[in-house]
Amino acid sequence: MLKHFYTLNSFHTVEIPVYDCSASSANYFFQYIGVDAVEFTDVVVYPNPATHVLYVQGVADYTTYCIYDLTGRKIMEGRPAASFDIASLSNGIYTIQLQNGEKTTVLRFEKMQ
C-alpha cells in the first residue's frame, strides 16, 4: 500500500515501488484549501474498491456524511450508517466526508462494477 503525507503549500513527487523497480509521478503542488486541522481516525471504509455496498467502520461519532466525486460535486448526503448503497454511482474515485460539529474525517474509495 502506498502512503504519502503531504506538506501543504509545497511541491511533491510520489515514488511508486513495483517489485524491483520504481516510477515517479510528475511534480504536484498541494495547496491549503480551508481544512483547519487533520486528525488521524479509526474510521475505515471497505471493501475498497467497492461494487454495490460500501461499509464504514467507526462511524458512530459522526452526525452527517457527504460523498463527492473528484470534481468536488456532491453526490450523496445524509446521516451516516454502517453501510452505504453505492450501486448507482458511476465507476471512479470518490471521497466520503464524515462530520460531527468541528470534527471532520475524509476518506477516499473507488467504485467499480
Strand share of the residues? Answer: over 45%
Number of strands: 11
Quickly name the level 1 CATH class of the domain at 44-111.
Mainly Beta
Largest sheet: 4 strands, antiparallel
Distance between the termini: 22 Å
Q: Which series of helices and strands comes N to C?
A: EEEEEEEEEEE
Number of helices: 0
What structural category arises from helix and sheet content?
Answer: mainly beta
As laid out across the biggest beta sheet, the strand order is 8-7-10-11
Tell me, briefly, the overall form. globular
| Second rung of CATH, namely the architecture of the domain at 44-111 | Sandwich
**Helix coverage percent:** under 10%
Look up the CATH topology of the domain at 44-111.
Immunoglobulin-like
Mean pLDDT: 78
- Rg measurement, Å: 16 Å
How would you describe this protein?
- Helix content is 0%, strand content 48%.
- The chain has strands at residues 10-12, 15-18, 21-24, 28-30, 44-46, 53-57, 64-69, 74-78, 83-85, 92-100, 103-111.
- It has a domain at 44-111: Sandwich (Immunoglobulin-like).
- The protein starts with 9 loop residues before the first strand and ends with a strand.
- 14% of the residues are buried.
- It is built from no helices and eleven strands.
- A hairpin with a 4-residue loop joins strand 7 (64-69) and strand 8 (74-78).
- The protein has 113 residues and is mainly β.
- Strands 8-7-10-11 form a four-stranded antiparallel sheet, with no helix packed on it.
- The model has no long low-confidence stretch (mean pLDDT 78).
